[in-house]
Prior knowledge:
With 81 residues, the chain is an all-alpha fold. It has one domain. It is built from four helices and no strands.
Amino acid sequence: MVSCKTIIANLSDYFDGDAPVEMCQKIEKHLRRCHRCTAVYDSTRKMLVITGDERVFEVPTGFSERLHGFLNKVISDTRAH
């Protein structure tokens, strides 16, 4: 079983298509059962789509604080596992 920490550490390569096939399979299997990592995956994917879009988006007030709070919670939760 792959840890949440390993999944999070390999998401960048997964998104870029640079992760080995075996790691991609492990990530996909892990995401089917781990709600925390799925939330990180979905949030990261959405941010990549938004930042890759040429249009200008106004970030809602307080978004940065909420994002950092969420990421800090996910990181502390994964360290607890």
